[in-house]
Amino acid sequence: MKLSWGLFFSSLYCSASAANPTVSPETARLIIAQRLGLSRFHSVEHADADAIRHINTYGGRQQKLFGGYDADRSRAHLLMWIEDGDEEYPSVVTSDEPGLLQGFRISDTPSTADNDRLIQDFARQADSLPGMPDPKKRTYKSAFEIESVLPSTSRLDTYNDYLNVLRVDKTSNIAREELGRLFTVITNKAEEVGFAVTMVTMPASGKHSKRAANLWGNYALPLAKAPRHQNPEAFMSINTEPSSSPAPPPSDLEDFPVTISQANNTGPVRGILPSCFNSLSACQKQTHGCSGHGECKLLHKGKGSGSDRQSLDCYGCACVPTKEHSGEDKGMESKQKVTYWGGPACQKKDISVQFWLFVMVGVVLAFLVSSGIGMLYSMGSEELPSVIGAGVSGPVRK
């Protein structure tokens, strides 16, 4: 039985924007990949001007120069992929800012097998990316926030701690009214937490489905290796206190040398610190209370329980900036010095702004000096005008 979601999504799609374009599956893949932060694996070499315009319009929040604006923004993203709907054409609705919905249609309908392969490749590409900077740990808790509003029968898969994939099909037993309420709750939660949402609906395979191979187009894949999301949090315990719980499965991080100075719990943290601790007390003890520049929080919840336990809970430091009073007050204004912190124990000053300011000043000065030298050289190589020697005549021959 097909899902009765066409009426809901049609109204949602019409409210997204006044003029909704229709794009090819390849352009839709480029847009979704751009939104998920996977554009490095998808080339736009053969994209036309319209495709580039659509990517810029629907590709999500643009990264500011040097990432200054996005330093504290959550990188979390929810991809809702709905199969076997009763709408006529595939559709995509995006939500990046509070109250802002955008949408577009896809001209052809790829098969369910092609869709499954594309989602799996998205997950594989996301798992291969390095960890994204997130000083306030908003991205890491996004899976808990999203999962709290989903039905108990839904399955949410998380990749590289930021990409959350929710797959819905005819086996999910979600009615049209329930889907509408679920999307409303998710967009409200996205506005509260700060993550982006991409919702893709695919009609049944029989509707406008093309048998052409590879409708989504070609793209690159990372080298095959063990997925990082299967056992990402089985970190080595550095707590010297005895524990009555069973020992967790061994982790690859146990081969990495970890040395921590524990002689003074009030002095600066020295040595190499892991990014995760298996308990809140261990985090507070080994990081000396996050060096007084933050607090220990739960970053990842362990998978499984009892004999089926696969990984431990992950606790780490969430850094906060510190403000210091400096100089003399003038009138109602008070001079304050704000310091940003980073590192596994919030023990390092974040000087990225000063670094990029120094680099940009150096680049501008080098450009001005080279331009001045080039201008002087070009002026010196020009020939004098012939008017200067026009009134001078040679000696008279007798």
UniProtKB/TrEMBL annotation:
<dbReference type="Pfam" id="PF12955">
    <property type="entry name" value="Vps3844_C"/>
</dbReference>
<keyword id="KW-1133">Transmembrane helix</keyword>
<dbReference type="GO" id="GO:0005783">
    <property type="term" value="C:endoplasmic reticulum"/>
</dbReference>
<protein>
    <submittedName>
        <fullName>Uncharacterized protein</fullName>
    </submittedName>
</protein>
<keyword id="KW-0732">Signal</keyword>
<feature type="transmembrane region" description="Helical">
    <location>
        <begin position="355"/>
        <end position="377"/>
    </location>
</feature>
<dbReference type="InterPro" id="IPR049205">
    <property type="entry name" value="Vps3844_N"/>
</dbReference>
<feature type="domain" description="Vacuolar sorting protein Vps3844 N-terminal">
    <location>
        <begin position="21"/>
        <end position="125"/>
    </location>
</feature>
<keyword id="KW-0812">Transmembrane</keyword>
<dbReference type="InterPro" id="IPR024382">
    <property type="entry name" value="Vps3844_C"/>
</dbReference>
<dbReference type="InterPro" id="IPR053065">
    <property type="entry name" value="Archenteron_Induction-Rel"/>
</dbReference>
<feature type="domain" description="Vacuolar sorting protein Vps3844 C-terminal">
    <location>
        <begin position="276"/>
        <end position="390"/>
    </location>
</feature>
<keyword id="KW-0472">Membrane</keyword>
<dbReference type="Pfam" id="PF21656">
    <property type="entry name" value="DUF6859"/>
</dbReference>
<feature type="signal peptide">
    <location>
        <begin position="1"/>
        <end position="18"/>
    </location>
</feature>
